[in-house]
Amino acid sequence: MKLLTLNFLTCAIKTCKTSPSSFPLHPQDSELEIVEADINVLFLRNMLPRLMWNELRLIVNELGLPSLPETAPDASSLLETKLQVPEGDTTGLNIEKIEVPSQVAKDLHRVLLETCIREGKLVCGNCGHEYKVMEGVANFLLPGHLV
């Protein structure tokens, strides 16, 4: 379960729907896994406005990951321009400008898309209900008395 997913999950219990403390769900006893993936700056740029930044920072801190900046990065900070001399150009006259992912983009990609909760539980801050995470999948099925 990618950490990005936690940005969209809230407690499934009906009485928690109106409580602000039911979001985000807090990971506990989590076994993390890094699943490497190619960086997609366009995806990150489109996701930035949808992220609940303060809640994401809280989750990252609870998991003991390197902390994120106080404020969300600007979409323009995800790419940086570098100069590159093409292979075989011994004169250096054909310098090209290329855009590469910035360190900010790499760090955000690592947290959101490569860091996964393999095992553990997600706990509601309102009612304390625990949702088990097994093999990277959270179980949101509720027992009959909580539906």
Task: Provide tags for this entry.
147 residues; alpha+beta; four-stranded antiparallel beta sheet; two-stranded antiparallel ribbon; 3 helices; 20% helix; 25% strand
Mean pLDDT: 92
Distance between the termini: 24 Å
Give the helix proportion (percent range): 10-25%
Radius of gyration, whole Å: 20 Å
Q: Tell me the strand order in the biggest sheet.
A: 1-4-5-6
Taken from the alpha-carbon principal axes, the silhouette is: elongated
Largest sheet: 4 strands, antiparallel
Q: Structural class, from helix and strand content?
A: alpha+beta
Residue ranges: pLDDT <50 for 5 or more in a row? none
CATH topology: N-terminal domain of TfIIb
Along the chain, the helix and strand elements come as EHHEEHEEE
Protein name: Trm112p-domain-containing protein
Organism: Lindgomyces ingoldianus
Give a nutshell description of this structure.
The chain has 147 residues and is of the alpha+beta class. The chain has three helices and six strands; from the N terminus they run βααββαβββ.
Question: What does this entry look like structurally?
Answer:
- The chain has 147 residues and is α+β, with helices and mostly antiparallel strands.
- The chain has one domain: Single Sheet (N-terminal domain of TfIIb).
- Helix content is 20%, strand content 25%.
- The chain has helices at 41-47, 53-62, 103-114; strands spanning 26-34, 79-84, 96-101, 115-123, 130-134, 137-138.
- The strands form two sheets. The chain has a four-stranded antiparallel β-sheet.
- A hairpin with a 6-residue loop joins strand 4 (115-123) and strand 5 (130-134).
- The longest helix has 12 residues, at 103-114.
- It starts with 25 loop residues before the first strand and ends in a 9-residue tail after the last strand.
- 17% of the residues are buried.
- The model has no long low-confidence stretch (mean pLDDT 92).
- It comes from Lindgomyces ingoldianus.
- This is Trm112p-domain-containing protein.
